[in-house]
Amino acid sequence: MQVTETLSQGLKHEFQINVPAADLDAKAGARLVDLKDKVRLNGFRPGKVPVSHLKKVYGRSVMAETIDQTIRDTNAQLFTERGFRLAAEPKITMPTEEKEVDELLAGKSDLTYTVAIEVVPAIQLADFKSFNVEKPVADVTDADVDEAIKRIAEQNRNYAPKGEGAKAESGDRVTVNFKGTIDGTPFEGGTGENIQVTIGSNTFIPGFEDQLIGIAAGETRALKASFPKNYASEKLAGQPAEFETTATLVETPQAVEIDDAFAKTLGLESLDKLKQAARERLAAEYAGATRQRVKRALLDRLDETHKFEAPPSLVDEEFSLMWNSIKAEMDSSGKTFADENTTEDAAKEEYRTIADRRVRLGLVLSEIGEKNKITVTEDEVGRAVIERWPSFVHRFSKTRWSISSSNWPASPRRRSRARSFTRTMRKRARPDRSQADRTGARPTLTPTLTICGNDLRQKRCRAGYSGLRISAQAVHQRP
User: What is the pLDDT of residue 335?
Assistant: First the structure.
């Protein structure tokens, strides 16, 4: 066997490999001998089929298998001897001319092919003991608990009918019957009876609720509204519709007394038990926010201390995943790059930078895992699945037009391993619990897997801080 390196450029290498026909023929002959005792042919007793006859019948297919196995074995030996860790599948170029292929399968010519690879660079890990990581601490105050209970009360507010002839206002609840049509034709799911609509809740398609302001019980109106472009039903997405709507009841919100009786409506024994439950929930959210802040700081430090060339193929793959997701989001929301005060080229450049960071951090975390023999157990995978399940439920229980597929979580095993990585990093780094953060930093909890918000630029911020696509559910911000 002869190996010639034809390209060595950064992380890219290419080799031309020649395997003599005699070597291939010997390997194919050994396979035929092994086949002799296994194959059954008419006219021959088991194990008595001449190898020459087997070669006539199965020679080409056996040679094809021999070539395939030889290429795999040769490549594996080459990569092992040179200490290569592949970043992607090797690209193998074989003869394509029919005459060359026939001679090769007949054992009359040498096997000559090229293999192009891209390798993972050697990674020198930083001294993690030199890392100083600030861990903000935020205690749950009585004011936090009171505010949380007020929000719960608001969500469980009772309504009472308004007087005869009273007009609906923002915040009122209107019970309606409606029949929807598109271009005068009824559509599936466009009819509803005794549907309760809270004006200003934004739970119906845009524009529907606002047109109920001023309506009275018994009054009929023709409401015009368009389905969002990202509506769940493709037949309705973006379509203008008209709804013949009759109000049957107009109700106004009532004051909520936050007391033991209210707590009991929520299934708790008393107001004290409700406050305790709220405090425990807030404490868990604050702890999660702190963990995400520490993890983000660690990823930033890893990024600062590990600058190396990332394999281009991995960066391209990561960029494609991100870009396709962003494009799908923008198409569904109807936004353009101009709406975000940028251009497509500028956005691509920014996302490619983020993709490069993600790949480098992924390789660094992988190296940390290998050096520290970090493993993920099946129990950890199971816990990760359970942990992520509420986010799936949340997505599909949201208003239908806001469902998006752009932020599907990474695999549970990947999340668990990343959690183990950052846990190891936190042990090695020295936490700095400053008194300023102990008293001044307050966690700002944000819903639906975002760090910086919902628009395009804020999604770029979120992506930039996510080493392995693990998005934070909450972050700390100073007042």
Answer: 80
Pairing of strands 430-432, 132-134: parallel
- In this structure, are residues 193 and 175 in contact, taking their beta carbons and an 8 Å threshold? no
254 sits in which H/E element:
none
Let me know how many helices (H) and strands (E) the chain has, helices first: 12, 13
Beta-sheet strands, E only, within 200-346: 220-226, 240-253
Rounded to 10 deg, the angle between the 412-428 and 378-397 helix axes is 110
Report how far apart, in Å, the C-alpha atoms of 293 and of each of 60, 169, 298, 306, 455 are: 62, 42, 9, 20, 21
Minimal CA–CA distance to 191: which of 212, 177, 203, 205? 177
88: left (phi over 0), alpha (psi -120 to 50) or beta: beta
**361: exposed, middle or buried (Cβ count in 10 Å: 0-12, 13-18, 19+):** buried
Lookup: tokens for 226: 């368009």
Q: How far apart are CA 267 and CA 273, in angstroms?
A: 10
| Other beta carbons less than 10 A from residue 13's beta carbon | 20
Q: Per residue in 420-431, is it b (16+ CB within 10 Å) or e — as a string? A: bbbebbbeebee
Q: Give the pair of three-digit tokens for residue 9.
A: 């450029």
Contacts of 6 (CB under 8 A, 6+ apart): 14, 15, 16, 114
* Cα–Cα separations (whole angstroms), residue 28 to 17, 22, 24, 40, 64: 19, 10, 6, 19, 9
Domains plus CATH for the chain?
Answer: 2-118 (3.30.70.1050), 128-139+279-477 (no CATH), 157-253 (3.10.50.40)
**Of the candidates 160, 243, 179, which has an alpha carbon nearest to the alpha carbon of residue 209?**
243
Q: Specify which residues 160 forms β-bridges with.
A: 252
Q: Give tens-digit pLDDT for 7-52.
A: 999 999 999 999 999 999 899 888 888 877 777 776 676 766 777 8
Q: pLDDT digits over 402-435, tens only?
A: 222 233 333 444 444 444 544 444 444 444 433 3
Handedness of CA 227, 231, 237, 243 (dihedral sign): negative
The string over 316-347, giving b where at least 16 C-beta atoms fall within 10 Å of a residue's C-beta and e elsewhere, is eebbeebbebbeebbebbeeebeebebeeeeb
Taking only the tens place, the pLDDT of each residue in 151-209 is 999 888 889 999 888 999 999 999 999 999 999 999 988 999 999 999 998 889 999 99
Task: Kindly report, residue by residue over 347-368, the tens digit of the pLDDT.
Answer: 999 999 999 999 999 999 999 9
pTM over 0.70: no
d(CA 180, CA 185): 8
